[in-house]
Amino acid sequence: MNYFTTSLMKNLIANDNNLPLFEEAVAELFRSELEKSINEILEHELTLFLDYERYDRSNNE
Predict the structure, then answer these.
(1) In whole angstroms, what is the distance from residue 61 CA to residue 53 CA?
(2) Is residue 50 scored above 60 in pLDDT?
(3) Which among 18, 23, 24, 59 is least surrounded, fewest beta carbons within 10 Å?
(4) Handedness of CA 26, 27, 32, 38 (dihedral sign)
C-alpha cells in the first residue's frame, strides 16, 4: 500500500463508523494531497521555464 491508501485506512479505523468525521478526514486528506501535487507541478514548470534547477549556482558569480 502507498501513503495515500494507508492514510485512508487509518482514518477509516480511527473514526469507527462515524461517517461525518470520516468524510471530513478524507476531504482533508484529498485537499492536502492535491496541494502537494500542484506545488510539485508548479515547481517543475518553474524549473523548465527558468532553465535551471533550484539553488543551482552559475559560474559568473
Answers:
(1) 16
(2) yes
(3) 59
(4) positive
Average pLDDT for 44-51: 88
Alpha-helical runs (H) found in 1-61: 3-14, 19-50
Crossing angle of helices 3-14 and 19-50, in 10° steps, is 160
Tell me which residue has cell 552559475: 58
Q: Cα separation of 37 and 39, whole Å? A: 5
Does residue 1 sit in helix, strand or coil?
Answer: coil
pTM exceeds 0.85, yes or no: no
Sign, CA torsion 48/54/60/61: positive
Which grid cell is 27? 476531504
pLDDT tens, 3-39? 777 887 787 778 777 778 888 888 888 899 899 999 9
